């Protein structure tokens, strides 16, 4: 046995439920005065290198209804392809670019992140991955958080050689991860189900 | 002990046991009907992008962030309800403590009512109860908070479903692929066994893992009961060369 069986079982997931905002974005649902700003609302705290972009994600269920009660978290590298490292446990220094964002959907099932375009990060095959953002989606009716990625449509060459995109055998389904550029905004529709179902990962 | 190093496998997370977690499509919980992906998940070992994750050492937690009895108080008095302390240790699957990680929690008030505009239960709001709190685990992975016991509440599912008393938890760990949301139930509550959301989990042992244990030893006399709820996040593999007798 190369790797011993782990000692403990991972705590099983349960749905975030319809009131996820209370715990993850309290100010958004009028629970004010407990924390100053909802965590993850602002990703940029000062001068940062790289191209400033907005990422807009709309989420739909299998009936085409917007997932108006979902929450999306993103995690990404900075413009030079580095992830923000752990801060010292008692440091109060907020990184100018956190790499992590969290937004609640509006009634149209839409979230918006103000961020920078990520640089390329080396993949498990030793080659550079295409620029991408990791996504984690929770909502009522989602029993375990959904993991996927967002890529950029103006990075066609890098996308073509990307380790993860190339794992998706049905090439048409690769498109479900690729956001379309519109000015400085990249837009991606996520479909939890149906003909255009997004590719989700078991990571 | 020596062994073979699998290329790329060292330090990776153990694969998630998807039979231990609830499946995506669980008809007894009707909200999953249109929200469960139908395609199977694409297996993808974590890359650097998922093996890293945000840390919150820089987040200055307020002194009342882990006190739901007082952190939303409008008039300086306590929230109404049965007072209790919830505490526990965040560990990984290798039984190693997960220090300095953010734990967020939210719940209904003592009457079972959430402070949320979409809440439809007629139980009274408590003006002094918000229902949100957070902690960062200490160097041994422990968190604790003070709250009131949440009430059970009805919800629209099949017409007359009730949730057992529960507290929602969000935990980060140190890798984005460890991200977890779950719910904590209370030992001995018969309503656990009639809840369609609990029943999305197949294995009784997994449900027991979500059940906090009454801890009389840590109960504060004349003040608050104590419940212990440990949380296990995904663990990392290690190379055989790193193996020590005491395990790692
Ligand atoms: Fe709940």
UniProtKB/TrEMBL annotation, chain A:
The keyword DNA-binding does not apply. Coiled coil: none annotated. The gene is pcaG. Its EC number is 1.13.11.3. Residues 26-182 form the Intradiol ring-cleavage dioxygenases domain. GO terms for molecular function: ferric iron binding; protocatechuate 3,4-dioxygenase activity. It comes from Devosia sediminis. This is Protocatechuate 3,4-dioxygenase subunit alpha. InterPro entries: Intradiol_dOase_C, Intradiol_dOase_core, Intradiol_RC_Dioxygenase, Protocat_dOase_a. The keyword Oxidoreductase applies. CDD domains: 3_4-PCD_alpha. It holds the Pfam family Dioxygenase_C. It comes from the Bacteria. Keywords: Dioxygenase, Oxidoreductase. Belongs to the intradiol ring-cleavage dioxygenase family. It is an enzyme of class 1 (oxidoreductase).
Automatic annotation (TrEMBL), chain B:
Residues 52-235 form the Intradiol ring-cleavage dioxygenases domain. GO terms for biological process: 3,4-dihydroxybenzoate catabolic process. Keywords: Dioxygenase, Oxidoreductase. Residues 14-46 form the Protocatechuate 3,4-dioxygenase beta subunit N-terminal domain. GO terms for molecular function: ferric iron binding; protocatechuate 3,4-dioxygenase activity. Its EC number is 1.13.11.3. Pfam families: Dioxygenase_C, PCDO_beta_N. Transmembrane segments: none annotated. It is an enzyme of class 1 (oxidoreductase). The keyword Oxidoreductase applies. InterPro entries: Intradiol_dOase_C, Intradiol_dOase_core, Intradiol_RC_Dioxygenase, PCDO_beta_N, Protocat_dOase_b. SUPFAM superfamilies: Aromatic compound dioxygenase. Belongs to the intradiol ring-cleavage dioxygenase family. This is Protocatechuate 3,4-dioxygenase subunit beta. It comes from Devosia sediminis. The gene is pcaH.
């Amino acid at each position: 046995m190369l790797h011993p069986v782990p000692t403990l079982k991972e705590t099983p997931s349960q749905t975030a439920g319809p009131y996820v905002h209370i715990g993850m974005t309290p100010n958004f649902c009028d629970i004010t005065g407990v924390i100053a700003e909802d965590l993850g609302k602002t990703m940029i705290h000062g001068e940062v290198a790289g191209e400033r972009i907005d990422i807009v994600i709309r989420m739909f269920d299998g009936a085409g209804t917007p997932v108006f009660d979902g929450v999306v978290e993103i995690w990404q590298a900075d413009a030079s392809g580095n992830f923000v490292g752990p801060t010292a446990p008692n440091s109060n220094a907020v990184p100018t670019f956190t790499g992590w964002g969290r937004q609640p959907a509006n009634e149209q099932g839409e979230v918006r992140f103000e961020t920078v375009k990520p640089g390329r990060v080396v993949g498990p095959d030793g080659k550079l991955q295409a620029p991408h953002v990791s996504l984690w989606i929770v909502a009522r009716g989602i029993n375990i958080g959904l993991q996927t990625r967002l890529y950029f449509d103006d990075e066609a060459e890098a996308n073509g050689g990307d380790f993860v995109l190339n794992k998706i055998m049905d090439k048409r389904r690769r498109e479900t991860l690729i956001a379309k550029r519109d000015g400085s905004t990249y837009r991606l529709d996520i479909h939890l189900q149906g003909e255009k179902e997004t590719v989700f990962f078991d990571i | 002990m020596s062994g073979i190093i699998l290329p790329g496998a060292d330090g990776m997370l153990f694969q998630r046991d998807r039979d231990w977690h609830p499946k995506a499509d669980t008809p007894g919980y009707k909200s999953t009907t249109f929200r469960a992906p139908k395609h199977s998940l694409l297996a993808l070992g974590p890359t650097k992008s998922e093996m890293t994750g945000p840390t919150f050492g820089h987040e200055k937690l307020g002194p009342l962030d882990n006190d739901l009895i007082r952190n939303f108080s409008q008039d300086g008095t306590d929230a109404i309800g049965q007072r209790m302390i919830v505490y526990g240790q965040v560990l990984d699957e290798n039984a190693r403590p997960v220090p300095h990680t953010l734990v967020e929690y939210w719940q209904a008030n003592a009457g079972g009512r959430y402070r949320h505009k979409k809440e439809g239960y007629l139980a009274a709001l408590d003006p002094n109860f918000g229902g949100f709190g957070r902690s960062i685990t200490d160097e041994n992975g422990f968190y604790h908070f003070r709250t009131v016991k949440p009430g059970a509440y009805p919800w629209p599912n099949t017409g007359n479903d009730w949730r057992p008393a529960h507290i929602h938890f969000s935990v980060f760990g140190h890798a984005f692929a460890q991200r977890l949301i779950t719910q904590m139930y209370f030992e001995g509550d018969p309503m656990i066994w009639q809840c369609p959301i609990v029943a999305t989990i197949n294995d009784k042992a997994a449900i027991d893992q979500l059940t906090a244990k009454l801890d009389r030893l840590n109960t504060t006399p004349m003040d608050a009961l104590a419940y212990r709820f440990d949380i296990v996040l995904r663990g990392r593999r290690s190379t055989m060369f790193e193996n020590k007798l005491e395990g790692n």
